Amino acid sequence: MLGEIRGEVRFKEPLSFHTSLRIGGPADIFVVPQDVDDIRHALLFAEREQLPVAVLGGGNNLLVRDRGVRGVVFKLEGCLGRSEFSGEEAVAGAGASLSALIREAAALNLGGVECLVGIPATIGGALAMNAGTPDGCIGDFVSVAYFLYPDGTFGEFKPNAGAFTYRAFHFPPGAVLVGCRLRLHRRPLAEIQKDIKQRLKHKKATQPLALASAGWVWKNPVGLEPAARLVERCGLKGKRINGAEISSKNANFIVNRGGAAAADIVALMDLTRERVQAHFGLTLEPEMRVIGE
Ligand SMILES: Cc1cc2nc3c(=O)[nH]c(=O)nc-3n(C[C@H](O)[C@H](O)[C@H](O)COP(=O)(O)OP(=O)(O)OC[C@H]3O[C@@H](n4cnc5c(N)ncnc54)[C@H](O)[C@@H]3O)c2cc1C
To answer: Which CATH code fits 83-206?
Structure first.
């Protein structure tokens, strides 16, 4: 079945090459599919061999542990990488870039999704995380999500209330998202561009974009101060363990200043969790996903 894959299959591929943090041990079997059939072949192989499956989009929200990931790892960025527009709708493949979709929609005077600008993501990763900002999340725009079940059969899902929650999409467990349909609305290009410019300016001023990170480490606790502020109030801003550092620009980011291992990031997370628990009696919940051994 692996032999039928037209894309690439690599063994012991370092995942540090595929994550924004530039950290991560090897994937046993790393598949870069070319199309839905390739994903299906690899899923069937994993099912037959009883191997676990993990999916990477752009790797912008992932900490991969130092000993890597067992089983089959898909890298979907670029595969199913197109978005098509019709009327006020877009149909986007899971590997399409979110920022390219926002740009292409704007050129057609289609907006709404510009509230997501500056989030580095594939469409699949944005869906799985319900990526967003205080002004909106991708789930607000999804009319249908398309996926493959672990046995390779095709499924579609019309999200109901509660399908998308804060940084989560409750799609069938083990499914691989392959695309979605998004509702957009008419808005003049000039307005969208102005909006995008302001949002990117704000992001640049408040986030350590020049350094390797995986975005926010922690979810904001409901009804309390933002996680960044809580971490800062514990005196952890700028705290370093080897090459890993709690950003001095935004304490909800951990950056890799060079040579950090996943163990260093995990140690900073453990320290933060303990301090915030001790100071505020609150357990922070990670937003960044941690995978591997
Ligand atoms: C500088 C920076 C700024 C950021 N700012 C924001 C922000 O403002 N708002 C925000 O919400 N996020 C932000 N993030 C986090 C990140 O960009 C988002 O979580 C994004 O959605 C991740 O997309 P990805 O394609 O890189 O997914 P990945 O990181 O590759 O994967 C994320 C999760 O989705 C799953 N997944 C990915 N693709 C699929 C698929 N096709 N099928 C099934 N599961 C899949 C993975 O298994 C994993 O659990 C930021 C990150 C960085 C580095």
So the answer is: 3.30.465.10
